[in-house]
């Protein structure tokens, strides 16, 4: 079932753990992963956010409305995907750090031939984008649309963990003390620190 825009209108630190166990579906609909690790980023309130200094062509999708995909290129070689959340006009997003593969294993393996096991297919933000075929053309995709092609966010009724694990975000240089990373405790697909 689709996620509703109202589900994503809150503060990213609240939305992030709520996203755990939701499903991310590839644009072709064949590859599906369960979200098992996320990080919250809160625009002007967060020096680690791409939108900290305001709106730019790169970050415009982060300013809403909620329910869209913010995709960015990093380290000159990797794509990373974020769920835009918060109220329209306020930059907020949740980075999807890891997925547990659910469907489309063969297509994921073909997209990630260096993965040594299925657990390695989506256990990092760049890896999951490769596995699901997410790239530049998906930036701004409507994750909540019920029809047509495109990356989708879905809820199959699996609730988020009652007590998600929580820690500091990974790979940032600013606001490193904030415990805005959340994951499903004990899930083997969570990224390696």
Report on this structure:
This protein is α+β, with helices and mostly antiparallel strands and 193 residues long. It is built from three helices and eight strands. It has helices spanning 12-19, 105-111, 125-132; strands at 23-25, 32-41, 69-74, 78-84, 93-103, 152-154, 165-167, 181-183. Strands 1, 2, 3, 4, 5, 6, 7 and 8 form an eight-stranded antiparallel sheet that branches.
Q: Nearest-angstrom radius of gyration?
A: 15 Å
- SSE sequence, one letter per element: HEEEEEHHEEE
Number of E-state strands: 8
**Outline:** globular
Main β-sheet description: 8 strands, antiparallel
Oligomerization category of the chains in this entry:
single chain
Spans of 5+ residues with little confidence (pLDDT < 50)? none
Q: Span from first to last CA?
A: 32 Å
Structural class: alpha+beta
Helical stretch tally: 3
How much strand? 15-25%
